[in-house]
Amino acid sequence: MHRHIVLILGLWALLVPTAPTPAGKPEKDYQKKADAMAWQFSKKAASPAASAKALPKPYEADVTVNDPWRANLGIKKSGKVLYEWQGHAETVFVVTGDVLYYTDHDQTSTGCQVVAVDLTNGKRLWKVRLKGLGPITHTRYRNQVNIGLEDVDTLRIFGRESAGGYVELVDRHKGKTVANRKYKTEEMKQEAR
Predict the structure, then answer these.
(1) I need a surface site. Which of 2, 32, 51, 177 has the fewest CB within 10 A?
(2) Residue (of 185, 183, 142, 176) closest to 162 by Cα position
(3) Are the C-beta atoms of 124 and 131 separated by less than 8 Å?
(4) 8-45 as b/e, with b when 16 or more CB fall inside 10 Å?
């Protein structure tokens, strides 16, 4: 009798539609969204200056690029410095709510990490290594990144590397990849200037 109940409950669980998220919204199919997404990388957006221009008020950025490999970056609100970090001439960031998201990547090697910081207290919330293109062997390499919001819950990161391009969608609350797509070279030809 007990086995029959377990079997019936197991079958019932398979037939019930996907449960809504805790907020009452159905789960989004982010992988399907990423698979349909056109290549949208912008060379102009791959800089801290472009990120600073896009900051929502009342936030401001201090950007001091010392050379292509070193930059001092900071976020301010009402003239008060909330958070500072070291990056380079192609470190990108976005602020939404009171959270800063910035890239931590090397311009001459594959891969990227995204860091989330609570600007109310300056504490790191999470750091995640993107799936990106995966492991790549190389001698000479180029790596640039764009970051932005896909929706209220998700970051969108486009990576343009010597070996190809990718888009990655990251849950901005949990710091987890929810979708990753790699682009073929011919798909990347229509790149924004």
Answers:
(1) 2
(2) 142
(3) no
(4) eeeeeeeeeeeeeeeeeeeebebeebbeebebebbeeb
- Nearest 10 degrees: Cα torsion 111, 132, 55, 67: 20
Question: Do residues 47 and 92 touch, judged by C-beta distance below 8 A?
Answer: yes
Would the pLDDT of 59 be above 80?
yes
Predicted structure pTM score? 0.75
Q: Which residues contact 47 (CB under 8 A, 6 or more apart)?
A: 89, 90, 92
Provide the residue ranges of all domains of the chain, joining segments of one domain with +. Answer: 29-188
User: Residue 139: pLDDT above 90?
Assistant: no
What is the rounded end-to-end Cα distance, in angstroms, of the chain?
68
Quick: pLDDT tens for 148-160: 999 999 999 999 9
Domain 29-188 CATH assignment equals 3.30.300.130: no
Rounded to whole angstroms, the Cα distance separating 71 from 36 reads 35
Distant-in-sequence, close-in-space partners of 7: CB < 8 Å, separation ≥ 6: none
Query: Does residue 133 contact residue 110 with C-beta atoms inside 8 Å?
Result: yes
